[in-house]
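Batch job 17 of 40 flagged for manual review because the log was empty.
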Amino acid sequence: MVTDPALLVLASLADGDKHGYGMMLDIQQFTGIELGPGTLYGVITRLTKSGWIRPMESDDRRRPYRITPSGRAFLREQMTELDHVVKTAMRRLKQA
């Protein structure tokens, strides 16, 4: 299971904009992992500085975030590498 909070946030945003609480609920639903607010907002800050997500305008006090094209490319690259590791491990398990 992927447990890197940055990848979890990017994966959550890959299917649409979400505010922080929405990301926490989505991540918990698809992984069973509960990210605390401190962890989540620290990751959001880092991903924003990296240019991989950006805040959207909102009339509400909750600010949604959107994955950027470079964030989508980074997520795809990381998932491709993870897929390679999983396939290698599964192949080796079958040989044992």
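Reviewer: the log was empty due to a logging misconfiguration, but the result itself is present. The chain has one domain: 5-95. Unflagging and moving on to job 18.
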